[in-house]
Amino acid sequence: AIFQGAIYQFSRRLTVFTQQAKKKDQGWRPSAICVSSDTFERDKALHLLSWISYRYGFGTYIHLIKGYFSKEKREESEIVLDKLLNKISYVKGDIYIDTIISPSFTSAIAQAVQLPSPSGMENNMVIFEYDKRDPKNLPQILENISLVQAGKFDVCILGSSSRNTQFENGIHVWIKNWDADNSNLMILLSYIILGHPKWKNGFIKIFSVCKEGMYAEEKEKLTELVQSGRLPISDKNIEVIELKEGVLLKELINEKSSEAALTMLGFRDEIIKHEGEEYFKGYDKIGDVLFVDAEGMKKL
What we know:
With about 300 residues, the chain is α/β, with parallel strands linked by helices. The chain has helices at about 1-20, 45-55, 70-90, 105-110, 140-145, 145-150, 180-195, 215-230, 250-255, 270-275; strands at about 30-35, 60-65, 95-100, 125-130, 155-160, 170-175, 205-210, 240-245, 260-265, 290-295. It is globular and about 65 Å long.
């Protein structure tokens, strides 16, 4: 008990130290939080959180138990937490696990984003997850995007497929030259994820989509990033695609990323307003897909 108390005291002091240190500009690091009620049906969000938090960041995973707080619900949450802790024992990464009792997904999100991170870092990213085959919870995710954005969080939406993750097939990152904020965050995330031991045989391939007539300019820009070391990737793993009139980007992604272990795409507020759920559907020929909306520019 004395030893455990000393550990708790050390942990508190470390948290205070980290909180005070954050005032200095030490560069961007992900501190992500994920809220889900589907933990025992699908665990890909939990694995994504472990990849992100393994080397460079921190993750908080909260299992939602729907209902109002009561003695029965509290007892249920304790049982569920024990199951979650057993589940997390085989996942590598700095992840804090907890449960939350709330009558709705929206109220759970509103509570969760206000929670301090156990690491002492401010949470700066929220991860959502839905099943690509049966996206019944996609509407409630999209309904809460504006709530999360009000807190100035980066937003990631993971579309889980039924495929097993074939890590050696790599991460495909689809960037657009007119969407630099999302492009930079996706590139950073792909390198962070690749630092996890599961991805030791993986690689990153970047598909850069540009408008007609801008191929040479985009190719030159990416070549400069590679040569300067700001984009540490082989030139052969970068493909610039000039999007011709009448060609659907979604069809290109389904074709070129059909075997990828993980595919990353950007999205913006305006896309949700104009296309809604349809933007996130139709990627049936690829595996897991991570949609990313960055809050501001991240430096490469």
